[in-house]
């Protein structure tokens, strides 16, 4: 059991607050508000990221993908995968013990969704744990939403993602969002996007570098694009702010 510290902010609860949820504390809200004052794009980006995820999950559900593996999921709140595709089996993976403890309560009644506490960059462990709930011989939708830009190249995330791709059955899909500052942000703002704090490592990859995470998976139209432009629910309005012009999103399919 994780000891609850009401004075310690938690990133997953802060993200829940950004999404308009109520699974957060006063200190989470205070720290998030300070972050938003310094970096006003933070909250809009969180919501744009979640909106893309929901569109991608709906797309995969319509393509008869009935299983999802969400890596670095955070709290399963705010219209997360199991709520968008209630008939699907969902395995959330997160290393945060606060998330793991709270998720057990949140998912208790779902019947088809679980969270496993694991190192999401240990592909062998993730696949082994997921196989207890998912049939890896059938198509799976693997989600890496706003995760990979927190991982430096020195940690070799390419190898981890390739291991996941190789283990998936034909018909599986890979869903990715990744920040990039190329041609969009000042170096100072780029640092804010790719790091969770002054001591955190991250990687500011080019669109071409992000594309390599899909390997030989075929990108679903419209390809790797600004997150709001991936199969939007409505046409973009003339003059609509492009807050997320540096959050790229794509879905790849294994043929």
UniProtKB/TrEMBL annotation:
SUPFAM superfamilies: S-adenosyl-L-methionine-dependent methyltransferases (SSF53335). Gene3D superfamilies: Vaccinia Virus protein VP39 (3.40.50.150). Pfam families: Methyltransf_19. This is SAM-dependent methyltransferase.
